[in-house]
Each structure stands twice: as structure tokens, then as C-alpha cells.
Design brief:
- This protein has 151 residues and is of the alpha+beta class.
- 19% of the residues lie in helices and 29% in strands.
- It contains 4 helices and 8 strands; from the N terminus they run ββββββααββαα.
- It has helices at 75-83, 86-89, 122-129, 138-145; strands spanning 8-11, 14-17, 22-27, 34-41, 53-59, 67-73, 93-98, 109-110.
- Strand 1 and strand 2 form a beta hairpin.
- It starts with 7 loop residues before the first strand and ends in a 6-residue tail after the last helix.
- 26% of the residues are buried.
Length: 151
């Protein structure tokens, strides 16, 4: 698998999906200076989730406080979730990190709309190739169960 062909760029230990970009602004608490970053989804470097992107969802159940639940998905699974509108429908965010500059202390999660995907990019083409009439595979359904989503 060639990285450049899939819109992935190696950045330190992470692979960035540069086909998706979201602007993020931090304001210094000390002097009020604003700093903007272009954030991208990135793959995890841990053994069980190596090469997967983290999607995050807030879950609130009656009688319990709101919690965040996450799942890890592959490039193709992320494309499938966009094609089927699952991320928007269930309020998922994607864990992001900056492509350059000083990163925030914690990699933020951001809602990533389809409009944030570069038109004609390899990821956009992967989204367009998904057959939305086919059900999600078992691996993707299992990953989403952790976030209380059933496909």
C-alpha cells in the first residue's frame, strides 16, 4: 500500500489523512493570542488499533452522566461511514491532530462534515465507491456496538 496514493502522510509516529482538514483555533489563557491549526484525522500507533482512526461519540443514558465512547476504524470503514451518513446521523467526532505547528496538549475530537473532505481526493473517491446498499461487515458492526450504534 503506497501512502501518498491514499492521501496519507507520515507525521512523526502517526499517519495523517490529509484529504480531510478542519480548522481549529486555540486562544492562550496567558496573553489571549490566537493560534490556528489545520487538523487531520490520524491513525493510532498502539498494537490493537495500529493504523486505525478513532471515532468518538457522546452517550447519555437516563440516570447516568454523559460519557464518551470511541471505536477504531480502518480507512475503508471510515469511508463507508461517511458514504452511509453514519457519522452525522449519530453525532460522531473524529480524533484529530495538526499537520504542522505546535500541537495542542490533547488531540481534540472534531465533527467532520463531508464538506471537509477534499473533492476528488483519494478519500473522496473511496467514499463514492462504497455500495451503500450492502450491509456493514461484521468487524465494523462490532466496533460500532461499543458506541451504542447498531448498523
Amino acid at each position: 500500500m503506497r501512502l501518498g496514493k491514499l492521501g496519507l502522510k507520515k507525521e512523526e509516529n502517526n499517519m495523517l489523512l490529509t484529504d480531510i482538514a478542519v480548522e481549529h483555533t486555540l486562544v492562550s489563557k496567558k496573553n489571549g493570542v490566537r493560534q490556528s491549526f489545520l487538523l487531520h484525522p490520524f491513525t493510532n500507533t498502539q498494537r490493537d488499533t495500529l493504523g486505525k482512526f478513532e471515532i468518538v461519540r457522546d452517550i447519555s443514558e437516563p440516570g447516568f452522566k454523559e460519557v464518551k465512547r470511541s471505536a477504531f476504524v480502518t480507512f475503508q470503514q471510515l469511508a463507508e461511514l461517511y458514504a452511509k451518513g453514519v457519522l452525522e446521523e449519530f453525532g460522531f467526532s473524529v480524533r484529530m491532530c495538526p499537520g504542522q505547528g505546535t500541537p495542542p496538549t490533547v488531540n481534540p475530537v472534531k465533527k467532520v462534515l463531508p464538506t471537509n473532505i477534499s473533492p476528488g481526493s483519494p478519500f473522496d473517491l473511496a467514499v463514492q465507491k462504497v455500495d451503500v446498499s450492502k450491509p456493514a461487515n461484521r468487524e465494523l458492526r462490532t466496533a460500532l456496538l461499543r458506541t451504542n450504534v447498531k448498523l
